[in-house]
Amino acid sequence: MRFSKLGKIRWTSHRDVARMWERAFRRTALPLAYTQGFSPRPKVSFGLALPTGHESVAEYLDLELAADRDAAEVDISSLPARLSLALPAGIDVQAVSVIDDRAGSLQEEVTSCTWLVEAASVSPAELSGLVEQALAADSLVITRQRKGRDVTDDVRSAIVSIEASATEPVLMCELATQPRGLRPSEMLTAIASGLEEARVRRLHQWIQRDGASREPLEVELPLDATDAPHAWERAS
Asked: What are the extents of the domains in the chain?
């Protein structure tokens, strides 16, 4: 399933969103498969976690139906509308598709994400200049935490592309998720120490197939999906 997370719901955590989905599955009586053991859980696997406070029009989850049910018994075409009604405002199901059960997990398959990032307290011209310097650099070193320890990393190779807006302090960027993901906030730190994010939206998650990048489920984005961040509150 592909879904969006827009508006005030962006302040809920990844764990809270997972609980929302479990309640939606119960309300719609979707025949999910469950794990074995003392405390059975529905077999639902989420894609890359979205940082709290960020919006997205490209979130994903995989789910498994009960062994005695199959996709033919479930009206797949009705699921986006049914589940969206059972979920909080701001979370909407965009597309549902049946996949081969031998397919890799979303965590393994996604190699990069495209983000729309608004930088705080900087002019468009200043931000554009900082981006040019960063892209021309051989290395971009930042310090971040890994397992409770500060680690210094060169993240230049994780910045696949950046495009700066000429009129807004906004960046359209593609950031790698493997071998270790780069967050938009870390990307801004790499560009210039002290540079902070104001509003962020994930637009795409990319997997590689036959040498080309594509989304796990492709949908037509809303017209306002790539609007400048100052318009997002109205759009959401």
From this structure: 2-103, 108-221
Closest CA to 86 of 47, 46, 30, 34: 30
What are 98-128's pLDDT values in tens digits?
Answer: 887 777 788 888 999 999 999 999 999 999 9
Task: Give the rounded distance of the alpha carbon of 191 from its chain centre.
Answer: 21
pLDDT tens-digit map of 45-82: 998 999 999 999 999 999 988 876 555 567 888 999 99
